[in-house]
Amino acid sequence: MYLCSFKPYLVLLAYADWQNQANDQDQTTFAAVVGKTGKKWHGGIEVFTQTLKSQPGGNLSRQGISVFGAKKVRKNTKAFARVDVYDPNTDADNDRKSLIIGGVDIEPTKGIHFMPNVWIMADDRAGVDTTVMPRVTGYFKF
């Protein structure tokens, strides 16, 4: 893993991993993150590719991308969003999965956050419905 931070705002991360598995079914992963930090807004993009060697029918390749960010909209309030797209088998059609998250982070006092948000989960497979899930997340820092 290689992490590089260009102060005060830019963050770069490169990651590589190899797992030696039994029966010559090794797994390799490559990933990269580019992000921006800051008080008014922060966010980034992450991509990865993973190969599982010698699976039945040949190697299995997976890929994914995540785009995320948050922007301060008031003194103690941020809007945030994230979009993930995951392909569990790059050789197969119609198997992609997506996740969209959006919400608001309200901090009424330092260290206490209430985050009403919604998750939308979509799946390209036939017969799988899109799920919309409203949520409220609490975060308390002591």
Would you summarize the structure shown here?
This protein is mostly beta strands and 142 residues long. It has one domain (2-140). The protein has no helices and 9 strands.
What layout of secondary structure does this protein have?
Layout: E1 2-6, E2 10-19, E3 27-36, E4 41-55, E5 58-74, E6 77-87, E7 97-109, E8 112-123, E9 131-140
Antiparallel strand pairs: 1-2, 2-3, 3-4, 4-5, 5-6, 6-7, 7-8, 8-9
Features:
single chain; mainly beta; 142 residues; 0% helix; globular; 9 strands; nine-stranded antiparallel β-sheet
Description of the structure:
This protein has one domain. A 9-stranded antiparallel beta sheet has the order 1-2-3-4-5-6-7-8-9, with no helix packed on it. Helix content is 0%, strand content 73%. The protein has no helices and 9 strands. It has 142 residues and is mainly β. A hairpin with a 4-residue loop joins strand 3 (27-36) and strand 4.
